[in-house]
Write a structure and sequence with these properties.
With 423 residues, the chain is mainly alpha-helical. The chain has helices at 6-23, 28-64, 67-99, 116-127, 130-137, 142-148, 151-167, 173-194, 197-212, 221-245, 250-256, 258-267, 274-283, 288-301, 304-320, 327-343, 350-362, 369-372, 376-401, 407-422. It has one domain (6-422): Sodium:dicarboxylate symporter (Proton glutamate symport protein, Orthogonal Bundle), CATH 1.10.3860. It is a multi-pass membrane protein. GO terms for molecular function: symporter activity.
């Protein structure tokens, strides 16, 4: 009998989780039993992410050893991220204006959630200027940044450490060997952790369905539908065109990442797939120097799914309260989102906080987000998956731009996957 692959196991975990959650809807005991299982899986994932990012960056940067080359890659990467996320925001705004998900909503039929903690975070983050955001990239204490999982600060330090290892030549070789060994060991641990993924998915989905119930989706069904359709359009049309320009097929990328996408969708955690995403893109022909830099940086600057959600959610709140936003006001909204979406990176519930901050700066009612909070998990699932596809494609685009994408390796890896699926 053919052994079930990880993707199938995760999908089975998802289906069972929905069923169990629906059966035990509102049952506190069932939620208390399931929650620790989901938390254990997420903690296992968080445990491996930082060591992989640090070791992968040090190994790849030490291999490049050229600060000018690295500076050019960084500049190109940030330019690409800014263009694509701006397109995502524009498409989100167009979809919200075209389909009007917030028009005609009876607020009395909606369940309100407590969003006070998000509002406090938004107020704290809003006080910081753009200059503060740049200062925050440079860690005053790298141990603290590692403990807090501050990816941008970790990337900055790891790049410098990699350059330092390369600069000292022979003396740096033992350090490089250590990080190479650490990277291999962490990928072995990743494969071990992924075996627990179906159980983690089962528990996480089960808790959410048991807590909110499937019925909570109905009043806001139009918003869910508009966001999902817009994200599918963005992936298959916009990212599809970018992929074609880069000489690859978006369907091939999705097929390669099917396990990671199902995992990202079910856990709503992009961290859960970061190690495997770097590994798979490298196997697909992207050099380690590119994947190790572009993907972790993209987790902060290239969140396409989150950008679409933020734009639609902001317009949805305005429509729900009957507030008409002129074209000029919507252009201002776009500019505000371009800034806030980058500034909130690394904040817990970042997308939600971004929308609250944006609503506040535009004079729109913040309490509108309390109506979305109950279904945010459902929206978070797809936006996380779209973020993953966007960052995978970004590593290919940057590899092509640098002239270092290995077409032969990509073809061989795709062929090997076809063989393993046929076996």
């Amino acid at each position: 009998m053919k052994k079930f692959g990880l993707a199938t196991q995760i999908f089975v975990g998802l289906a069972l989780g929905i069923a169990v959650g629906a059966i035990f809807y509102g049952n506190e005991t069932a939620m208390a039993i399931l929650q620790p299982i989901g938390d254990i899986f997420l903690n296992l994932v968080k445990m491996i992410v930082i060591p992989i990012v640090v070791s992968a960056l040090v190994v790849s940067i030490a291999g490049v050893g050229d600060i000018k080359k690295l500076g050019k890659l960084g500049g190109k990467t940030l330019l690409y991220f800014e263009i694509v996320t701006t397109i995502a925001l524009l498409i989100g705004l167009l979809a919200a204006n075209l389909f009007h998900p917030g028009t005609g909503i009876e607020m009395g039929n909606l369940e309100k959630s407590n969003i006070s903690s998000y509002e406090e975070t938004a107020q704290t983050e809003e006080k910081g200027s753009i200059a503060d955001q740049f200062v925050h990239i440079i860690p005053s204490n790298i141990v603290q940044s590692l403990a807090e999982g501050d990816l941008l600060a970790i990337v900055f330090f790891s790049v410098l450490l990699g350059l330092g290892v390369a600069a000292v030549g022979e003396k740096g070789k033992p350090v490089l060997s250590f990080f190479e060994g650490l990277l291999e060991a962490m990928f072995w641990i990743t494969n071990l952790v992924m075996k627990f993924a179906p159980f983690g998915v089962f528990a996480l989905i089960g808790v959410n369905v048991a807590k909110f119930g499937i019925g909570s989706l109905i009043p806001l069904g139009k918003l869910i539908l508009v966001i999902y359709l817009t994200m599918f359009f963005f992936v298959f049309v916009v990212l599809g065109i970018i992929a074609k320009m880069a000489g690859v097929n978006i369907f091939v990328i999705i097929k390669i990442l099917k396990e990671e996408l199902i995992l990202a969708f079910t856990t709503a955690s992009s961290e859960a797939v970061l190690p495997k995403l770097i590994d798979k893109m490298e196997k697909f022909g992207c050099p380690k120097a590119v994947t190790s830099f572009v993907i972790p940086t993209g987790y902060t600057f290239n969140l396409d799914g989150s950008s679409i959600y933020q734009a639609i959610a902001a317009i949805f709140i305005a429509q729900m309260y009957g507030i008409h936003l002129s074209i000029g006001e919507q252009i201002t909204l776009l500019l505000v989102l371009m800034l806030t979406s980058k500034g909130m990176a690394g904040v817990a519930g970042a997308s939600f906080v971004v929308v609250i901050t944006t609503l506040g700066s535009m004079g729109l009612p913040l309490e509108g987000m309390a109506f979305i909070a109950g279904i945010d998990r459902i929206l978070d699932m797809l936006r996380t998956s779209v973020n993953v596809v966007g960052n995978a494609l970004a590593s290919i685009v940057m590899s092509r731009w640098e002239g270092s994408f290995d077409k032969q390796k990509a073809a061989e890896y795709t062929a090997s996957l076809k063989k393993s699926n046929a076996a």
